[in-house]
Amino acid sequence: MQTSSDRHEYPAHWEADVVLRDGGTARVRPITVDDAERLVSFYEQVSDESKYYRFFAPYPRLSAKDVHRFTHHDFVDRVGLAATVGGEFIATVRYDRIGAGGTPASAPADEAEVAFLVQDAHQGRGVASALLEHIAAVARERGIRRFAAEVLPANTKMIKVFMDAGYTQKRSFEDGVVRLEFGLEPTDRSLAVQYAREQRAEARSVQRLLQPGSVAVIGTGRTPGGVGRSILGNVADAGYTGRLYAVNSAFPEDLKEIDGVPARRSVREIEGPVDLAVVTVPAERVPEVVTDCGEHGVQGLVVISAGYADSGPDGRQRQRALVRQARSYGMRIIGPNAFGVINTSPRVRLNASLAPEMPRPGRIGLFAQSGAIGIALLSRLHRRGGGVTGVTGVSTFVSSGNRADVSGNDVLQYWYDDPETDVALMYLESIGNPRKFTRLARRTAAAKPLVVVQGARHGGVAPQGHAVRATRLPHATVSALLRQAGVIRVDTITDLVDAGLLLARQPLPPGPRVAILGNSESLGLLTYDACLSEGLRPQPPLDLTTAASADDFHRALSRALADDTCDAVVVTAIPTVGEGSAGDAALAAALRSAAAAVPAKPVLVVHVELGGLAEALSAAASTAPQAPQPTEPQPAPRTPPAEAEDTAPAGPRTPEAGDRRAAAPPHPRPAAPAAPHPAGPADPPPEGTRLIPAYPAAERAVRALAQAVSYAQWRRDAADPGKVPEYEDIDERGAAELIAGHLARGQGLALGDEETCELLGRYGIHVHRALPAPTPDDAVAAARDLGYPVALKATAPHLRHRADLGGVRLDLADEEQLRRAYTELTELFGTPAELRPVVQGMAPRGVDTVVRAVIDPAAGAVLSFGLAGAATQLLGDMGHRLIPVTDREATSLIRSVRTAPLLFGWRGSAPVDSAALEELLLRVSRLVDDHPEVVAVTLEPVVVAPRGLSVLSASVRLAPPPARDDLGPRTLPAY
Predict the structure, then answer these.
(1) Is the dihedral of CA 782, 784, 787, 791 positive or negative?
(2) In 252-360, at which residue ranges do the beta strands (DSSP E only) sit?
(3) What is the mean pLDDT of residues 404-416?
(4) DSSP 683-748
């Protein structure tokens, strides 16, 4: 590393893994004196043309002086970064701080000259763009605000790198050289460019895992059974369209194939490229396998092997080493301890998982951090059928296991512009980067529905193997923030499937008005009640009687859909005695025919024990081939035997704690390959056929419909999200000076009352004066200063904001009443020193509310609102929004709490000044957004009157702001 003469220690925090444009990864790190040989080797592999573009003259080799200059940095005024793959340089960037005349300088000079060199074989991969983001972040950290670069006009690629970065630029041409100057502060455009590049790169990295042209299963057993042999059979049986190889170091040298698949002793022996390696060897042998894969140029790994972070501290260290090793070769990992991946596209047909059967192709994407839950999702889609066809089955399935590398964020990036996925279903047990997840979810939800169920939400501990950031936010707050981002958040796997089936093939409802019709009055009434419980607006149920025919249903449904006062229809049906499957088929055809005539409104069916109707509605629509159902209870699937040398231990094959996969039965090879997608009970309907989801209970159907109604409303609102208003009386600079002065006294502190009032006043937030009253005479003097009537309050922590305990006396009109109240408080609760009494002028009567803002290290800045007292403290009735809040979001925040009717004239009371309350929320949002050092604000109570409001108490906490990784350069999570 650097010598003792260097001005700064080696900045290890500058090291980062990045995803490049083609989906591969590279390591970015500072260049040190130890890199001399690497630098020389790198330069020798650069073409003469690239060298000419870098130095503006022929420069065949680096001199010893050059090597010294380019490897010795002080990490302040001279910094060099390298992008590496396999430990070798593929690109470099450096900056040198310069003064006004372009000569070398030191701080406080805030300009630097920057230059790049990218190995020709790696040009076009987005390496220079990634390095520019990282060197710019380093420069900002070192007090540099501008970069200057001189580029030859013919070097159009490098000019494009600078011009496309999105920074504010100035361009000039002099002496045959293009000079570019640009500021380094992130702009809306630079962030948009960065996010777009991030999306393309991360989507491509997942695409390489889900659409490989060749697959090697490493650890394939020599005898039937075992994890590796089972997965090899699953890939082959699915009809995989690419090249498939079986790899096992224990294969005899003369073994050429196994089960008809080419067999090799090592990946290195495979003649052509390998895009994906499925690793099933024991954990202790995985590093050797990763080395072989990296040297052979494998693009990605699915690591089925267990024994990592799921097995304790030693396993966690093993997992970190695995990620570092794979990334050093530019590979990404799904797993370890993964269940596998599936892609049903006819162009791929990949089942690289422990699932013994391939799901039917469709439009639903599935992601699960747990293999057990993932296979449960596939199983439920298989059994349900209703509304799921060959078109609305599964597009892709990813079970991430320990989620050491590829996460739900990466899969969201892939699904965002995947033309074969219309609905995304996710089971998450932890969210490693909530700030990024909400950003990606908001963008994805604007294009296609995203339904999420979160496990382990009450345990407070992430599952073993998951490296996640700590958050202080309760689950209810996280859920509210997800809903703000457009996520359809449900509580159970059943709800996840129910919502997915509806969204996959039915249009979004234009509103909450629901028509109910069917042949059962009781079932109709249950549906009506369920609609009211979910906040929908149902019409009185239409009872067609049990004698209704399929034609009767068709006519009734057609009338309901044609009614302009109806936004969705729920059809309830009970079995018709004696008609059997023929009657079910006729009813299904009648309903589909009527629904197809009005394609803009969704239709759902609630049925009771109508297996035939569900099948007819879905038209042979299960997501997996039909299998005979056992009539007797069957034993649990047997664990595939692990081979001591070349197959990973499967771990517990039931969903025990720590096992991120699921039970997998042995995989005997059939005599002949099975058809990739066997037909169900009937041929699937043509593409675009109107399919209707069927539900076994009214509550489930209505709950799915309510989720769709809320999501549709979010989509409409997202089209016009509102704006963050400007207020002329905000003194941003004055507030910044106050904050800097306070922080100079310490790293984190709670401001006193006067300091709080002064800071809030800079943002137009005025706190009602409260004067201390340590004695009765002081209380009288304070009342004279404020003017009667006054309030006397105890502010001790155990009495603060607890008017129900009697620590507050209101409407004290004169000195006599004030002294009497003072005596009562001290007799009841203790000495003045214990009570900390204050005197405050009376505020206009209104509704007591509470406004809070907090910066969470994981989720970011959050604004919260609720009614003060029991509603907030006992029931947790709070609404939440991410900061910065727009005017429309402030309006919705006030109305999001269950007690909101108290603000709008409930039971004849006077409505409060909601406009003043919204303005207060927006001002608090602006304060926290403008000054991230304000890490907590509490205004309680805020009394909102029919005209105006009064902030009676406030507190502010300051601290150095947490790092904002969403504003920094693109990086993968560190290991």
Answers:
(1) positive
(2) 257-258, 261-264, 276-279, 300-303, 332-334, 340-343, 350-353
(3) 94
(4) PPPPTT-----EESSHHHHHHHHHHHHHHHHHHHHHTS-------TT--HHHHHHHHHHHHTT-SS
Say which range, 535-539, 554-558, 868-872, has the weakest mean pLDDT: 868-872
Question: How far, in Å, CA of 636 to CA of 630, rounded?
Answer: 13
Residue 583 near residue 576 (C-beta atoms within 8 A): yes
Q: Tell me phi and psi for residue 881, to 5 degrees.
A: -145, 145
Q: Phi, psi (5° rounding) for residue 898?
A: -65, -25
Round to whole Å and give the CA distance between 266 and 821: 87
Question: Alpha helices, DSSP H only, in 245-307?
Answer: 286-296
Pairwise CA distance, residues 817 & 803, whole Å: 18
Report the alpha-carbon distance of residue 861 to residue 622 in Å, rounded.
Answer: 44
Residue 290, classed as helix, strand or coil, is helix
10 Å CB burial of residue 176 (0-12, 13-18, 19+) is exposed
Give the orientation angle of helix 127-141 with respect to helix 156-163, to 10 degrees. 50
Q: Residues 467, 472, 475, 477: what is their CA dihedral angle, to the nearest 10 degrees?
A: -130
Per the CB < 8 A criterion, the answer to whether 194 and 398 are in contact is no
- The pLDDT value given to residue 806: 77
The SS3 of residue 421 is: coil
Residue 452: which pLDDT band, with cuts at 50, 70 and 90? very high
In whole angstroms, give the CA distance from residue 474 to residue 744. 32
Amino acid at 598: V
Percent of the chain with pLDDT over 90: 63
How far is Cα 500 from Cα 678, in angstroms, rounded to an integer?
A: 23
Give the whole-angstrom CA distance, residue 920 versus residue 849. Answer: 12
The answer to whether 493 touches 377, Cβ cutoff 8 Å, is yes
This prediction has a pTM of 0.82
Residue type, 704: A
913 DSSP 8-state letter: -
Closest C-alpha to 434, from 18, 133, 856, 16 = 856
Closest of 774, 829, 780 to residue 800, by C-alpha: 829
Check whether 673 has a pLDDT greater than 70.
no
The Cα 619–Cα 622 span in angstroms is: 9
DSSP 518-582: ES-HHHHHHHHHHHHHTT-EEPPPEE--TT--HHHHHHHHHHHHH-TT-SEEEEEE-PPTTTHHH
Contacts of 785 (CB under 8 A, 6+ apart): 771
Kindly provide the b/e burial profile for residues 253-262, where b requires at least 16 CB atoms within 10 angstroms of the residue's own CB: eeeeebeebb
Question: Tokens 């009352």 — which residue?
Answer: 753
Could you tell me the two tokens for 328? 């050093």
Instruction: Provide the CB-side half-sphere exposure for 529 (13 A, CA).
Output: 9
Instruction: Tell which residue, 895, 967, 900, 881, has the closest CA to residue 482.
Output: 881
Q: What are phi and psi of 801, to 5 degrees?
A: 60, 25
Question: What are the tens digits of pLDDT across the range 474-512?
Answer: 777 888 888 889 999 999 999 999 999 999 989 999 999
Q: Residue 278's closest CA among 338, 325, 207? A: 338
Cβ-in-10-Å burial (0-12, 13-18, 19+) of 387 comes to: buried
How far apart, in Å, are the Cα atoms of 922 and each of 503, 779, 902, 939, 949?
34, 35, 21, 13, 14
Amino acid letter, residue 184: L
Q: Which parts of 293-336 are beta strand (E)?
A: 300-303, 332-334
Type of residue found at 423: V
**Cis status of the peptide bond prior to 434, with omega within 30 of 0:** no
Residue 333: both structure tokens together: 């990992």
Place of tokens 């099948």: 615
